[in-house]
Amino acid sequence: MQSPDLNMFFSPTGVAVIGASRVSGKLGNDVIVNLLDNGYEGPIYPVNPSAGEILGLPCYASIDAIPDPVDLAIIVLPAPYVLRALEDCGKRRIRGVTIISGGFREVGTEGIGLEEELKRIAAEYDIAVLGPNCIGTIDTHQSFNSTFVTGIPLPGEIALVSQSGALAAAIINWAQRAGIGLSRLVSSGNQAVISESDMIRATAEDEYTKVISLYIEGVEDGQAFIDAASETSQKLPVIGLKVGRGEGGAKAVASHTGALAGADIAYDAAMRRAGVLRADNLEQMLDWARALATQPLPKGNRVAVVTNAGGLGVIAVDALEAAGMRLAPLTEETRSHLRSRVFPAASVKNPVDILAGSGPASYTLCVDAVLADETVDAVVVAIAPQRWFDPLSLAEIIAELGSSFLSRKKPLLAVMMGLTPGDPSSETLQAHGIPNYPFPARVGSTLGAMWQRRQWLDQCEALTAAVELDDLDTDTAAAAVQAGLEVTREQMESADADSALWMPVNQVESLMQSYGISVPASGLAPDVDQALLLAETIGYPLVLKLEAAGLSHKTDVGGVRLGIESPDDLRIAFTEMVDQFHEKMPHTSIDGVRLQPMVDGMTELIVGMVRDPQFGPLIMVGAGGTQVELQKDVAFDLAPINHYQAEALIDQTSAGQLLAGFRGGDPADRDAVVDVVVRLSQLALDWPQIAEVEINPLIVRRVGEGASAVDARLRLDPDAG
Amino acid sequence: MQSPDLNMFFSPTGVAVIGASRVSGKLGNDVIVNLLDNGYEGPIYPVNPSAGEILGLPCYASIDAIPDPVDLAIIVLPAPYVLRALEDCGKRRIRGVTIISGGFREVGTEGIGLEEELKRIAAEYDIAVLGPNCIGTIDTHQSFNSTFVTGIPLPGEIALVSQSGALAAAIINWAQRAGIGLSRLVSSGNQAVISESDMIRATAEDEYTKVISLYIEGVEDGQAFIDAASETSQKLPVIGLKVGRGEGGAKAVASHTGALAGADIAYDAAMRRAGVLRADNLEQMLDWARALATQPLPKGNRVAVVTNAGGLGVIAVDALEAAGMRLAPLTEETRSHLRSRVFPAASVKNPVDILAGSGPASYTLCVDAVLADETVDAVVVAIAPQRWFDPLSLAEIIAELGSSFLSRKKPLLAVMMGLTPGDPSSETLQAHGIPNYPFPARVGSTLGAMWQRRQWLDQCEALTAAVELDDLDTDTAAAAVQAGLEVTREQMESADADSALWMPVNQVESLMQSYGISVPASGLAPDVDQALLLAETIGYPLVLKLEAAGLSHKTDVGGVRLGIESPDDLRIAFTEMVDQFHEKMPHTSIDGVRLQPMVDGMTELIVGMVRDPQFGPLIMVGAGGTQVELQKDVAFDLAPINHYQAEALIDQTSAGQLLAGFRGGDPADRDAVVDVVVRLSQLALDWPQIAEVEINPLIVRRVGEGASAVDARLRLDPDAG
Q1: Interatomic CA distance for residues A34 and A147, integer angstroms
Q2: Size of interface A-B (CB pairs under 8 A)
Q3: Which of B26, B167, B657 best tests the A interface by mutation, with the highest count of A CBs <10 A?
Q4: Could you say which of B311, B556, B663 has the minimum Cβ distance to residue A556?
Q5: Which one of B354, B583, B630 makes the best mutation probe of the A interface by having the most chain A beta carbons within 10 Å?
Q6: Tell me: domain B467-518+600-721, CATH 3.30.470.20, correct?
C-alpha cells in the first residue's frame, strides 16, 4: 500500500477545530489554547454554530464556511456527531482529520458500528483520519501542537508514536520536567484509518527526528508493521515498548512448539527482524532514546568506565555485562599514562577508579586517555558528588570531551549522581548531547541497545537476503496437502473431531520429502504378522511407534520402542505395546504400529512451526527430547528464514553447542539443520493451510551425512489459506 | 563472638577530632563543620598541637589532654601518624575510634603491614575501630554526623551500612535531593576491626530504623554475616546490594557442580538464607527501602492496579508479573460497585482503568473499593498527569487512603508521573509514608520484594529447624576419609598430581553408605576374566565403567556401557571399551573396568557439593545427565540444609516437575531425593576435608523405592579441616 501523505498532521497550512468551545477546561477550548500557546502561525478556524469568537479568533458556523488555506481538521465533538462532521470535511475537501472524540470501537458493539461507518466515509472522501480516541499530533519544530494536553514540550530529536494517548500525555509532561526535547509526537488511538505503521513512516521523514520511540499495545497488520519498521530502522534507531508480555496468543497446545510459543514471542521476533530495539519499560525506552538521539554507536562492545567511587564502577560493570557489553582491556600504554596522573592508590585497571579526591582535571586526563585507547569502544563516566568541586566544572569537561573531535566518535555516557533536572550541570550536559543517568546501572542496558543496533546495521544485508530453493516438488506437495485436507475435513465431521487433526503420516512424509526434508520411509502394520512382513522390506534395527487417534505424545504411554533387532524382538515388543496401551487407554482404538528404520546420529534437536495470528509462521529450533517443555531451551524466529538467520537462530540455544560437538564429541551436520530450518520456513509460507509442524527429534548425523526428521507431525487448518 | 557496644559511633558523649584543621576544605575541618552544622550537642574536642582554636572550639595539643566526657575519636591524620594516635586513644581509654584516613590495606604491601599493626593495637587496648579508609557514621535522630561529606541528611527510617564510602556519600546526596530521610549511616571501610556484621547489629538496635540497606563488595566471615543478617531480618527488613556479579569464585572445574557454581551463587544463597532481599542495583535498593520502611507487607501476591491510563496499567502489570505477583481477580461485588461509579468505557476488570477524564473523587472511590476487596493484597495507583486536576488533590487522597484504617493494612504504592522532589505533591506523599515512583515498572520489583519478605517471615521457623540424623556411622566415615586422604597425599606426591585427586571408588561407596546415601555395590576388574567372575557375584544386567587416573567425564571417551546382559556381552564390551580408550588416550594407563548392577528408575538427577571460600558447603540439585552444563537447570543452597529447605531447593529447577511425574508419568520418590540432599549437606559439614562431591546421576525410583547414587565422585583436600 502506498503511504498517504501525512504532512498536514505536523505542518498544516490551516487548521479547523470542529467542536471549538469558549469554556476553559473543555477539550474544544484546550486544543485552541495549545495551538495558540505553542505558537502555531497558520490560520486557526474554530467551528461552532453558536459562538461568534473564541479566544480572539472569529468563529465559523459550519465546516463549508471555512476559507482557504485549510488541510487539517480536529474533531472534538461527542461521538454521535462525529460522522456527519467527517462527511462535511470530505465535502469541504479537507485531506487530514484528527478525531479526538472517544466512543467508538473501544466502548463495544455500538461503537464498532460507528467506527465501521467512519472508515467507510474516510474511504469515500479519501480522508486521512487519525484516531478516533486519540490526543492528536505535535511537531515542536513547527511550533504545532494539536493536543489538549498541558505543557509545551521542548524542541528536540526524540519522536514518539504511541497507541495510548494517556501515555503520550505522561511523556510530554515527563520530558518537559526533565528538560528533554521531543521532535514529533503522535497518538494513534483506535487506528481506524491511519495505523502506527503509517505514522512510523511519516515520523521518519522528519529532518529533526533522530530516534523514534514506539509504544505498542497490539499490531493489527504484522507484515505492514515489519515493513514500515525495518525500512525506518535502516535510517534511524527505532525503540519499541510492547506491553502485555504475559498475554498468551492463540495457542495450539498439541505440540511442544505450540506450548512454548506465545504472542509475546512473536512480537519479540518481529521487532528483532525489523531492527526495532525492544525496551522493557518506559524508563528504559527514554534512557535509550536520549543516548541514541545524540551519541554515535559503538563499533564494538568494549567499554571503559571512569569513576571516583569504586562502588559506582562495579554497579555499572554488572549492568554492562548483563547487557552483553564487556570491559575494555586498555593498552599497556594507556595504563602507564594513567598511572602517572592519578593517586598511587587509584586503580588504572578498567573500571578506572580515580578515587574521591580527584577533580575535573583528573577526569579530563583519564577520560581523554581511555577515549584515545584503541581497545575502547565506549566510555562511561560515573561520578559521586564531592564537596571539593562544583558539579558544573565536571559537566563542562564531559561536554567538551564528548565533542566528536575529542571523543573520536565513541559514545560517552555520564552518570553524575544527584543532579536535578534544570540545574546548570544538567543543562550543560543536555545542551551538548551527553545523556546523564542518575544511577549507574542504567548505562548498562543503554549501551547494550546501542551495540545491538550497530550489529543489526552490520548484518542487515545478510538478514534481508532472499531465500532461494529451486528443488521443491510443489506438485507432490500440493497433492499431499490436498489429501491431508480431505482426511482432516472427514475427521472434523466425525465425533472425535478435537483430537483428530494430525495429518496422516504417509502424507507428512510425502510433503516433507517434496520440500527436501529427509524423513525415513516407514510403514504401518495393523497386526504382528504384517509387521513381520514389513520389517523384511525396511530392515532391522527398527523403531516401533504406536498409532492411535489423537495420540500425540507417544512416549508418555509407552508407545515408542527403539532398537528392535530381530523378528523375535519385534513380536514381543509389538504385543507388549498394544497390551500396555489398551490397559492405559481402554476406550481408544489403535490404528496399528508404525515401523521405521532406526536412525543413529550425533545429536537430537527439535524444529517446529506455529502460525501467529499477527505475524504468520513462527519457526522454533532447540535441544530436542521429551523434556523440551521443561527446559525451554528453544528459540523462535519469523518466516521467511534464510541461511544466515537460521544460523543465528540455532546459536540462540544450546543447539549450537550440541552441533559443534559438546564436551569432546565430534561435530554434527550443522548445515543440514540450517537447511531443514530454511525449508520448513518456506513450506509454512507456501502452504497457509499448515497450522502447526513439529519435528522431534530431528536426528543429526556427522558432518556431511545430513539430518533426518524421524518423528514429524503436522496439523492442517481447512479454513485457512 | 559477643558484639561490641557500638553506641558511641551514633550517640557519643563527647567527640575528639584528631587531625583537626583550621583550613576550610581539609578533611580535618570538614568533619568539625559537619558536627556543628548537623547540631551535635555534646562536647567537640579538636586535637592539633599547633592551633589554639578551630571554628570557635578550643583546641587540644594532645590526646591525653582531652577532658571527660569523651568516648569517640575521629582520626583524620595521614596514615603514618595514625598508629601512634590510636595507641594514645587507647591510653586515654577512648573506647571507639573512627579512622577516616586511607593508606592501609587498600594500597598494597606497605599498607597491609600498617593495618596488621593497627589491629594489634586495637586488640591490646580493646578499642572498637571503624575503618580505616571510611567516611564514618551518621545518626540523624541524634543530630550526629561524623563524616566530611557535604549535605545534611533528613531524619528518616532508612539505615545504610556501606563498604564503600563514596557510595555512602552519593546516597546522602541523593536522599537529600529526593527528600528521603535516613536514620543511621555507616561506612565500614577496610573493616580492620568492626565488620559489616557488627554494624548490621548495631544499626538494628536503633529505634528509628525501619529498614536496613547494605552495600557489599565482599564479606570476609560468611558465617558471621549470615548470623548477623538472619537475626536482624527477623526484626526488620534488610536489603542487600552485592556488586560484582560477574566475578568468579575459586572454582573447582573438575565437576559439573564446580563449573556451575561461583562466588555470586554463594552470595545469592547466603542472602536468601539470611532473609536479605537482594537488589540488582542502587535504584532498586532505594525503591524497595522506601516502601519497606513505611508500608505494611502484603499478605499474598494479588495486586490491584488503578490507573487513568491503560498503558501505565499494562506496564505495571508486566513488571508485577515478572516479579512473581499476579493480578487480583476482584470480587463480583467490587466490580459492580465500580461499574456504577466510573465512565461507561472504563474497565472495571483489574487493571482498573478509570480513563483520563477521572479526577480525585473517582480515584478515591475506586482505590477504596479495591482496598476493601478481599481478593486484593496490595494496591498500586498509577496516574498520568491531566490538565483538569491539581496533582496535590490526588496526592492528598492517596495519602489519606494509605492510613492504616482505610488501607486495611494493605500496602499502597503510588506512581504519580511527572512529580519533582520537593513539590507539594511529593512532600504530601512522603509525609504520609506513601512511596511514589516516577515510572510504573518500578512498583513491580518493589512489591515482589515485599512479598518475598512476607514469605520468608512465614517460613522462618521451618527454615531454621535443625537437621537431625541419628543413623550416621561416623566411625566408618572417619576410616574412609582417612584412607582417602592417604591415597590423595600419595597421588599428590606422584608426578601426575593434577589429575589424581578423586577419592578411590571403594572409599566413596563406604563413605556414602555410612551417611545413609545408597550406592550400588560395585567391583573393579583389571581384566576380562576377573570381570566375568565378578559379574557372577553382582548379577546381570550390568553397567561397565572404565577407570583411569584423572578420567572424570567417562561418557566423553566411551567409558560407560549400559545394559550388559550376559557373559558374551560383557566380554565384547570390556574389550571394545579398553581398545577404544587406548586409541583415544594412548598415554593414560587404565586401572580396570568397574562393574555395577544396572539400576533402573523413573528419572535421573544431579546432586553435588562444592565448598565456597566464604560461605562453606554449597549444595547443588538439578536435572542430571551429561548436558547439565548446557542446560544450567540447577539450583544451589548453603549447608546445613534441612528437609524443608531441600524441598524448596528441588522445586527451584525442573527436578521438581520431573519427580512429580512429568507428562503423565508416575511420580518418583521425592522423599528419597530430599533425604540424599540433607545427608550430603551433613556429610559436607562434618568433613571439611571433602572439597567437592558429585552424584550424577542419582537414579530415583518409584515412590517408596528410594534413590541410588550410581555414579558418585568425591575430591578431598588434604590441607583443609
Answers
A1: 7
A2: 217
A3: B167
A4: B663
A5: B630
A6: yes
Is residue A20 a contact partner of residue A46, using CB atoms and an 8 Å limit? yes
CB–CB contact A106 B345 (8 Å): yes
Cβ-count burial of A97 within 10 angstroms (0-12 exposed, 13-18 middle, 19+ buried)?
Answer: buried
pLDDT at B254: 57
Q: What's the complex ipTM? A: 0.79
| Whether B401 contacts B371, CB under 8 Å | yes
* Tens of pLDDT, residues B420-474: 777 899 999 999 999 999 999 999 999 999 999 999 999 988 888 899 899 999 9
Alpha helices (H) in B433-587, listed in sequence order: 442-464, 474-493, 505-514, 528-538, 567-584
Is A503 within 8 Å of A488 (Cβ atoms)?
yes
Name the DSSP class of B215.
E
CB burial of B84-102 (b: ≥16 within 10 Å; e: otherwise) equals: ebbbbbbebebbbbbbbbb
Q: Which residues pair with B381 in a beta bridge?
A: B306, B414
Model confidence over A349-408: pLDDT tens digits? 999 999 888 888 889 999 999 999 999 999 999 998 877 778 899 999 999 999 877 889
Q: Do B169 and A385 touch (CB under 8 A)?
A: yes
Share of chain A above pLDDT 70, in %: 95
Q: Residue A165: pLDDT above 90?
A: no
CA distance A376 to A303: 6
In this predicted structure, what is the pLDDT of residue B247? 55
Residues B551, B554, B556, CA angle at the centre, nearest 5°?
110
Residue of B nearest to A247 (CA): B318
**Domain with residues A297-462, CATH architecture:** 3-Layer(aba) Sandwich (3.40)
Instruction: Find, in chain A, the residue whose alpha carbon is nearest to that of B630.
Output: A654
In angstroms, the separation between the Cα of residue A209 and the nearest Cα of chain B is 23
Q: Domain extents for chain A?
A: 7-209, 297-462, 521-598
Taking the CA of residue A67 and the nearest CA in chain B, the distance in Å comes to 32
- Nearest residue to B513 via CA among B462, B566, B472, B466: B472
d(CA B662, CA B665) in angstroms, rounded, equals: 6
pLDDT digits (tens, 9 = 90+) for A301-348: 999 999 998 888 989 999 999 999 999 999 999 999 999 888 888 889
Q: Flag whether the pTM goes above 0.80.
A: yes
* Cα(B205)–Cα(B524) distance, integer angstroms: 61
Q: Label residue A2 by pLDDT band (50, 70, 90).
A: very low
Asked if A312's CB is within 8 angstroms of B167's CB, the reply is yes
Length of chain B: 721
Cα three-residue angle B246-B249-B250, rounded to 5 degrees: 150
Query: Do B521-598 and B297-462 have the same topology in CATH?
Result: no
Closest Cα to residue A561, out of A577, A585, A547?
A577
H-assigned helices in B295-331: 310-322
Q: A476 to chain B, minimum CA–CA distance in Å?
A: 36
Cβ pair B556:A308 closer than 8 A: no
Tell me how far apart the alpha carbons of residues A397 and A365 are, in angstroms, rounded to a whole number.
10
pLDDT value for A108: 81
Option in B103, B217, B317 nearest A311 (CB): B217
Cα A299 from Cα A455, distance rounded (Å): 9
The CATH class of A521-598 is alpha beta
Residues (pLDDT < 50) of chain B are 1-2, 248-253
**What class is the A7-209 domain?**
alpha beta
Dist CA B698 CA B598 (whole Å)? 13
A345, closest residue in chain B (CA to CA): B107
Q: Do A246 and B317 touch (CB under 8 A)?
A: yes
Can you tell me which residue has the cell 476488570? B349
